[in-house]
Design a protein that fits this description.
alpha/beta; globular; binds adenosine monophosphate; 285 residues; 9 helices; 19% strand
């Protein structure tokens, strides 16, 4: 496994892999790797890709009062996990390599970035889209892997790729969860023991929605939203940023889940912000 910090060197290594006829897969991450990230890597490896994992805590996607400084950074143990997972190249640039002096071009995906996470985290998706297009330009992957855990992010990247005619297949990967259902996240380490217990309510709320549709045949989206909200409100440590039942593609609020929908959740528990989601009313997940 090669560990590379410079874009120029990355280009050379990827260039020779491509000349050997290998297909390049990219897994963009911010590090502090867990089994969710490993699922993306496994999917890439399973597709036979020459697998490139980027590890970069991207400053432009954090707001001024967010957790950029305290975000967990653990490159050595991340590299071990990547080695064990059979990664070919880790790209771990410094901030100055990605954003050199004089940098001034950003990607603004419209519409879908203005709601939910975009409304609560001003500028977040602009930072995400910008770093992802830069990673695509540096790696030129055939496939790129994104977790469904960050559902809105996945939709933003799909739209960017469509709108800008980027030649890459976006591969969505299902959310990996802890035994009690909490979606794995690098931010879970911020939770105290008591907060960690409270965090399981997100999954309970999502499962309540899924069962309401699958087992009780409820199709009214507002009824389902209220059920989700009441599970969350029963947990005193949880403060809801949003709980919504939306269209799978446009993320607009729906009235009925008959054709499938997604429940989007964002909550704060103490000083930690957690997001999760679940597809409902569809057979494939
Ligand atoms: P992050 O390092 O948090 O920016 O995440 C990097 C990638 O891993 C993103 O595409 C995330 O959606 C994905 N990811 C994070 N957590 C999970 C999880 N629990 N299950 C599946 N994918 C995940």
């Amino acid at each position: 496994m090669q560990v590379i910090k410079k874009i120029e060197e990355l280009r050379q290594v990827i260039g020779s892999a491509k000349r050997e006829g290998l297909v390049v897969g990219l897994v963009p991450t911010m590090g502090a790797l867990h089994d969710g990230h490993i699922a993306l890597i496994n999917q890439s490896r399973g597709n036979g890709d020459f697998t490139v994992v980027s590890i970069f805590v991207n400053p432009t996607q954090f707001g001024p009062s967010e957790d950029f400084d305290r975000y967990p950074r653990q490159l050595e143990s991340d590299l071990e996990k990547c080695r064990a997972a059979g990664v070919d190249v880790v790209f771990a640039p410094d901030v100055s390599e990605m954003y050199p002096e004089g940098f001034g071009t950003y990607v603004d995906v419209q519409g879908i970035t203005e709601i939910f996470e975009g409304a609560f985290r001003q500028g977040h998706f602009r930072g995400v889209a910008t770093v992802v297009i830069k990673l695509f330009a540096a790696v030129e992957p055939r496939r790129a892997y994104f977790g469904m855990k960050d559902y809105q992010q996945l939709k933003v990247i799909e739209k960017m790729v469509r709108d800008l005619n980027v030649r890459v297949d976006i591969v969505p990967v299902p959310t990996v969860r802890e035994p009690d259902g909490l979606a794995m996240s690098s931010r879970n380490v911020y939770l105290s023991e008591e907060e960690r217990r409270a965090a399981a309510s997100l999954y309970r709320a999502l499962i309540t929605a899924k069962k309401a549709v699958d087992e009780e045949g409820i199709a009214d989206a507002e009824t389902i939203r209220r059920m989700v909200e009441s599970v969350l409100l029963a947990e005193p440590l949880v403060q809801i940023d949003y709980a919504a039942v939306v269209d799978k593609e446009t993320l607009q609020i729906v009235e009925s889940v008959k054709n499938g929908a997604v429940v989007l959740l964002a909550v704060r528990i103490g000083s930690t912000r957690l997001i999760d989601n679940m597809l409902i009313g569809v057979s494939d997940k």
